[in-house]
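User: Please predict the structure of the protein below. I'd like the answer in C-alpha cell form so I can feed it into my own downstream comparison script.

Assistant: Understood. Taking the following sequence of 78 residues as input:
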Amino acid sequence: MTDNISAEQLRLLIERVERLEEEKRGISDDIKDVYAEAKATGFDVKTMKVIYRLRRMEKHHRDEAEMLLETYKTSLGL
C-alpha cells in the first residue's frame, strides 16, 4: 500500500513540474515578444536587460556593482 501511495505522489509531483515547465515556456515566449516589441519601437534590448537586472538588485548591491564597474573602467582607461 505504501508503494502505491509513494508512486502516486511521485507521479503527481512530476505532473506538476511538467505543467509548471509548460507555463514557464509560455511566459518566456511572452517576455521575448515584449523585447521584440521594444526593439521594433527603437529601444535597445541589451540595455533594457541591464536595467531590468539593476532594478532587481537591492540598492546597496547596485551601488557596489556600479562602484566596481567604475573602478575597473578607470583601471583600464575607459
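That's the full C-alpha cell string. The chain has three helices and no strands.
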